[in-house]
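DM from R.C. (forwarded with permission)

"hey, sorry to bug you on a friday — could you get me a structure for this? deadline for the figure draft is monday and I only need the backbone to look sensible"
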Amino acid sequence: MKRHRLFLLAALALPGLAGAGTPETVVPAQVVDVRPELLSLSAKAALERLGQTDGFLANPAVRIGLPKNFARADGILRMLGQGDKVDDLVRGMNRAAEQAIPLVAPRILAAAANLPPDAALPGPGGEALLGQAMLAAIDNVAASSDLLGAYNRLAQKLKQLAGLRGEFSSLRDYVSRKTLEGIYLSLAEEERRLRAAPLPVASQP
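My reply, with the result:
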């Protein structure tokens, strides 16, 4: 998964994909061994799978669970009959991730298609660019969904029961980070699957 994260971030920091007027620092070249067409196919398949309904929620490998401050109180909340609020938040986080995928997919697919064979790994620029895009996507989804409402209902109950407090901004960061982790993991899985099935050879004109 780490290798896929690195070469995707390398592509995102390339000129033309990094964003207008923002030069990105590139560290000394470290070659990423990847076939561009394989990366493109892997990215397309992974994003299609994750971006559908239950793409995150029904997949244990990428399913987004409760953040730590809520997870510690999960058992207590369920014993007190608040399991529906817990489930609502988990569902809301995963739905947000699924709905955010189409919003960031064009950037990721363009990066995958434009990665040269001997790409140099970037500094923090590529990471920041993709992180900003994902946060914007999560904000966009949250504005038109019940994610904020589900969070507030559970946060209010936790505050009443255990004095635990949290901010929605920390939740959006958490969901954004977990969504990106799911993308990297799915990319790795798709690449393994595609490597096991050789790519078709293009016919000569």
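R.C.: lifesaver. The beta strands are 26-31, 120-122.
me: no worries. Helices lie at 2-12, 36-50, 68-71, 74-79, 83-113, 124-143, 147-162, 168-196.
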